[in-house]
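Feature request, filed as a ticket because there's no other form

It would be nice if the structure record came with a short human-readable summary line next to the tokens. Right now we just get the raw output. Example of a typical job, pasted below so the devs can see what we mean:
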Amino acid sequence: MTDILVDEFFPHPVEKVWRALTTPELMARWLMPGDFQPRVGHRFTMRAEPIPAVGFSGLVACEVLELSPPRLLRISWRDAEGGNPLDTTVTWRLEPEGRGTRLFLEHAGFDDDDPLQQLSARIMGGGWRTHVMRRLAALLADPPR
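Raw output as currently delivered:
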């Protein structure tokens, strides 16, 4: 498995989903806290729980690679401490669908010859599809005032 693909529908307009994806305070609520800014070239770090089994330090080093409001956000994604050689990209693409939005997520670049990266992909694939999408859906259903 070299890519994680997620296809999720949200009954909210593209602009609302885009705001949740690219507003730092909102991103911290559904993904991870960090110092994200929606600006190409911006380097930032996000913090999560370490996962010793795959050598994940708990710090994700990222850079905004592409930004096309309100449809596309692509970032680099690697372990900030270097404990895991993972060097991947995450892309969110939004498409209007009826009265809602179809979100396509692609987390790409896992080395299919590296057992540690394959384990990372399985763990993150489950996380993207369940925990992260559930938290994003909850935020969209009840945004902060």
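Something like this underneath would help us a lot:
The mean pLDDT is 93.
The two ends are 40 Å apart (CA to CA).
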